[in-house]
Structure formats: C-alpha cells, structure tokens
Amino acid sequence: xxxxxxxxxxxxxxxxxxxxxxxxxxxxxxxxxxxxxxxxxxxxxxxxxxxxxxxxxxxxx
Length: 61
Fold this sequence. Notes:
Blueprint: H1 2-13, H2 20-31, H3 34-38, H4 45-56
C-alpha cells in the first residue's frame, strides 16, 4: 500500500543513532573533515549520507 511506503520512508528519513556508541561514531566521522566539523546539522543517517556524498563527489572539504 502507498501509505505504508510513505510511513516507512518518513520514519527512515528521521532515523538517527539511538545508542551512545552510534552517536559517537557519527560525531567522530563528522569531525574527521573540515566540512563536517563546520556543520551542526548532522543528526540523522541521511545527514551522514549527505555529508559523505558531498565529499565523495567533489565537494570542497
């Protein structure tokens, strides 16, 4: 059903690390580059992917 797909997508768009260890990994990854260290909006897993894509596809880091 379309509503199930929409609910699944909305949940995962907002999904963030729930355990302290996961949050620590995200923070460590974020601070490992100048571009990530300047950003305060890295909260969800999609934010991490956005940062990674920015770096992987030629974004200034």
